[in-house]
Amino acid sequence: MKPLLEVKELSVDFYKHGNAINVIDKVNLRINSGEIVCMIGESGSGKTITSLSIMRLIDFNSGKITHGDIELSGVSLVTLTKQEISVLRGKKIAMIFQEPMSALDPVFTIGDQIVEVLIRHTNLTKPAAREQAITLLQRVGIPEPEVRMKQYPYELSGGMRQRAMIAIALACEPELLIADEPTTALDVTIQAQILNLLKEIRDEFNMSILFITHDLGIAAEIADRIVVMYAGKVIEQAAVHELFEQPFHPYTSGLLQSVVTMDSDRTEKLFTINGSIPSLSELPTGCRFHPRCAYATDRCRSEEPELVSQSGREAACWNIEKLLHEPQQQVEPKRIIAADRAIAASFEHEQKQRLPLLEVRAIKKYFSIEQGLFKQNKKLIHAVDDVSFQIGKGETFGLVGESGCGKSTLGRVLLQLEQATSGQVLFEGKDVLRAPAGEWKSSRRDIQFVFQDPYGSINPRWKVGDIIGEPLWVHESLKGQAKRQKVVEVMELVGLNPAAYDRLPHEFSGGQRQRISIARAIALKPKFIVADEAVSALDVSVQSQIVNLMQELQGQLDLSYLFIAHGLNIVRHISDRIGVMYLGKLVEIATTDELFAHPAHHYTKALLAAIPLPDPTRRKTFLPLQGEMPSPANPPTGCRFHTRCTAATDLCKKIEPALQRIGPGHLAACHYPA
Amino acid sequence: MFMFVIRRLLVSIMVVLASVTLVFFILNVLPGNPAEMMLGPNATPETLQNLNESLGLNKSLLVQYFDYMRGFLKGDLGESFITKKPVIDQLLAQLPATLSLAGASIAIAVILGMVLGVLSAVYQNKAIDYVVRMISLFSISMPTFWLGILLILIFSVHLQWLPAIGNGSLRQLILPACCLGIASAGSLSRLVRNSVLEVLNEQFVVTLRAKGLPEKLVLCKHVLRNALIPTVTMIGIVAGELLSGAVVTETVFSRQGIGRVVVEAIMQKDIPLVQAAILIAAIFYIIVNLLVDISYTYIDPRIRSKH
Fold first, then answer.
1. CA count, 13 A, side-chain hemisphere, A635
2. Contacts with B207 from chain A: Cβ below 8 Å
3. A-B Cβ pairs (cutoff 8 Å, strict)
4. Domain count along chain B
5. Are the beta carbons of B210 and A104 separated by less than 8 Å?
6. Residue B39, in any domain of the structure
7. Does A106 sit within 8 Å of B206, measured CB to CB?
8. Kind and range of the H or E element at A7?
9. Cβ <8 Å between A90 and B300
């Protein structure tokens, strides 16, 4: 059968200041009609560039196709004029993107943005196009489509925006849909909904999907075939089952091993691929992966391997045979170890014995929005509502929940970046929120932070050494040589080269910047660190490096962590205990193994079920959780989760369940705990 | 939306009252007695005393202030020290000339600034961009009096297309309006260029292109509207400057106008006239900015929701 899309030896150059940089090199890609092909690889591997090249959107970014061809149903896209290709865009090939907020024009209504594409590519009149747009919104699962038509992107939730994006893409029933990390910015529950929607659409329209992702769990969940890219080249291509069973390329094998699953052994260090992806301007000779490869030979260093076919799949490696004959490294997936209740009980006892390092008592944080002529109507957003928990010395407490549940706000309250509406935060027995004015400095000294965005959280105009040394200057008035000496110590501790002291942040990769953030946090030898989504923005292999680092530091410096995240796999790996938040409330607290083995709250169960498993043989056949989290300005009565809960009864609608003990070290706020 | 306008109007009224107060006290603490200035160095103490009394300058400052505010609220801005006519009539007579110059030059600045700015952004780092950037640099750094003289030399003296001086007819408006407008167009075009470039880098522009929209539509419908917010803000600021800052242009082209009246009034210490003129400028400025704020809400729905 002739494939729908065929990319043959495609090379693309970008021009910067008159210099050409080769960004993808002889990429081959085939997509049959009705097929879902996942393209995986770390950031910088050329996935997005490949997809933009297929649309010829690189034309607008001074990119140029220097070699090869792209054929869509036999028509070459490379030779088309600007006008000809723009007629195909949106009609034959459509695209959806990672961040649906920035991918929609903020100043036009959702309706206008769908109608626009219909008017462009069909003969529909405006009223007919509006009708069609409403049908489309309905198809992608947007409730009250007539109302949504008149709304602007900022008025919709992230999930709804991505659905609207899909509606725009579907408008002209394209043959190929390119989805560039379409669920990366979404919560797991919403991600599961969107993946499901995409599968439905594929079946309904027999559409092909090129799905770009860095998450192997998603690839296992949705793909028919997988293409692995590294540093601008395709290095492996295989059907999804084959690839997960036996990777042919060491890089793929490494990627598969660095996935943290719900089954992986928590006591072991996370697997990491050494080093990081090379910059395109300084590519290594020979095989581009050889500096990070355990199998590399002299041949790999000098000669670049071609992509060769072998039993229906392709790989570009000189050592496929060696890899194949290696005893299977893959550990037989251990099912979740049933938590030992006796251990949990002794843990609970132990917890009571020792003084907690941090105790949060009935913390509330309400934001008010004012409306009306004299701002007389005050509305309260219940961001954090009556949350209590404790963190012991040397413990890691994970805090999870969908975005908007108040977990970050809680973290900010602990850091005293937000003032709590009421409640207490006791740190070593002292209430830090009501500390006398003179003690604000000392109370902050022992509590440090690491934020999500490694780009936004450090000052781009400061030298690395000064960034790390600032807390030393603030708290200990260290300057000059004394500061440098201490900073160098800290840099070595987090695995940064001390020679980088005088360099600027932009010279570092995301993972290294996060190391800078961590170095700044530990510079004062604090006792407690709030890590708010500290690894969420990083690639899988880098994520593992940072998690390992944080665990090492914990052992060396006797640190306690509050680890806020929405990625449950990582939280499971690093945390001793986990708290689950929903709409400002803490709905469940348990030791990690207990929580994953016996989730009691129905929300926790749904969250766990929504995680895509990196195993194509265990695909989900059901949707874990419908709907979205209601607005915290107007939370539901009774149990806040009852609107989405399958087990909800009248009792749940009326009476709010209290957080109570249901087992050793296990608390849940549910009338009908499972 | 209605609430928003009402609230802004209430605030505006307070701003007007505050500016009247401020102007009153600032002018009164300036050194020099108006009566002395009017009578010259040879005046006897007696005539000075009389004049002070008739002008009300012998009363305490606070009493003068309340007298003035009472008149202000009744719509009476006082009489000129020099001409003894109500200042309001004197200023209103100048208003048409000033407003037509301000309006025409804003129109020129906006049209020229937008066109040049968009061109320059779309052809970033190409020949057109360099030319536009040269032009705007030229127009920003050139003093208006010199540009005015240049325009007169070229279009009135050499080509004899347009009259050099006077006010009244539309033909007489063209040169001064161009002179003022070009100066603002330069800075406006730089701003437009920057904001258009910023919007062109937004992710949603990729979406629009991926939808297959022709580049013209992407640019004129989506990018321009998104780039308009900073531009409109700038227009508000420029408009305020034009009303009072047109003195030089008015002088070069021998035009009537509030600007020139104010300058003369300041020289002669004609306090009531200065006060009234500043008041008119303040009101004009407030109206323009109210319009700017309202237009924000039409351009960007996100601002609408905040009100």
1. 23
2. 95, 97, 103-105, 165, 168
3. 85
4. 1
5. no
6. no
7. no
8. strand A5-16
9. no
Confidence of residue B40 (pLDDT cuts 50, 70, 90): confident
DSSP chain B: -HHHHHHHHHHHHHHHHHHHHHHHHHHHHSSS-HHHHHH-TT--HHHHHHHHHHHTTTS-HHHHHHHHHHHHHTT---B-TTT-SBHHHHHHHHHHHHHHHHHHHHHHHHHHHHHHHHHHHHTTTSHHHHHHHHHHHHHHHS-HHHHHHHHIIIIIIIS--S--S-SSSHHHHHHHHHHHHHHHHHHHHHHHHHHHHHHHTSHHHHHHHHTT--HHHIIIIIIHHHHHHHHHHHHHHHHHHHHHHTHHHHHHTT---HHHHHHHHHHTT-HHHHHHHHHHHHHHHHHHHHHHHHHHHHH-HHHHHH-
For position B282, which CATH number holds? 1.10.3720.10
B301 in A contact zone (CB under 8 Å): yes
Q: Is the minimum CB–CB distance between B67 and chain A shorter than 8 Å?
A: no
Residues A462, A27: Cα–Cα separation, whole Å: 39
Give the tens place of pLDDT for each residue, A394-451: 899 999 998 888 999 999 999 888 889 999 999 888 888 887 777 777 778 889 999 8
| Residue A275 backbone class (left: φ over 0; alpha: ψ -120 to 50; beta: rest) | left
Q: Do A89 and B299 touch (CB under 8 A)?
A: no
Q: Quick one: pLDDT band at residue A490, thresholds 50, 70, 90?
A: very high
B8 touches chain A (CB under 8 A): no
Structure tokens at A609: 């079920």
Contacts of B204 in chain A (CB under 8 A): 102-106
Residues 6 or more apart in contact with residue A248 via CB below 8 angstroms: A236, A238, A310, A313, A315, A317, A320, A323, A324
In B, minimum Cα distance to A99 occurs at B203
Residue B111: give the domain boundaries. 88-306
Q: Give residue ranges of A with CB < 8 Å to any B CB.
A: 52, 55, 57, 60, 82-83, 86-91, 94-95, 97, 99, 102-108, 116-117, 120-121, 152, 154-155, 165, 168, 372-373
B7 in A contact zone (CB under 8 Å): yes
Q: Which of A630, A635, A155, A637 is nearest to A366 (CA)?
A: A635
Give the minimum alpha-carbon distance from A504 to chain B in angstroms, rounded to a whole number. Answer: 24
| Structural domain contains residue B290 | yes
Q: How far is B243 from chain A (nearest CA, A)?
A: 32
* Cβ <8 Å between A108 and B212: no
Is residue A116 within 8 A of residue B213, CB to CB? The reply is: yes
Q: Give B199→chain A minimum CA distance, Å.
A: 10
pLDDT value, residue B101: 87
Quote the minimal CA–CA distance from B3 to chain A in Å: 6
Chain A, nearest residue to B204 by Cα: A103
pLDDT (mean) for A57-79: 90
pLDDT of residue A331: 45
Q: What is d(CA A549, CA B261) in angstroms, rounded to the nearest whole number?
A: 74
The answer to the question of residue B138 being in a domain is: yes
> Tell me, what's the pLDDT at A376?
66
Residues of A with Cβ-Cβ distance to B226 under 8 angstroms: 105-107
Contacts for B134 with CB less than 8 Å, ≥ 6 apart:
none
Cα first-last separation, chain A? 51
A339 pLDDT tier (thresholds 50, 70, 90): very low
A159: amino acid identity, one letter: G
Q: Is A203 helix (H, G, I), strand (E, B) or coil?
A: helix
Judge whether B305 is closer than 8 Å to chain A, CB to CB. yes
Phi, psi of A262 (to 5 degrees): -75, -10
Is the pLDDT reported for residue B276 higher than 50? yes
**Residue B171 distance to chain A (closest CA, Å):** 40
Closest among A334, A511, A521, A339 to A444, alpha carbons compared = A521
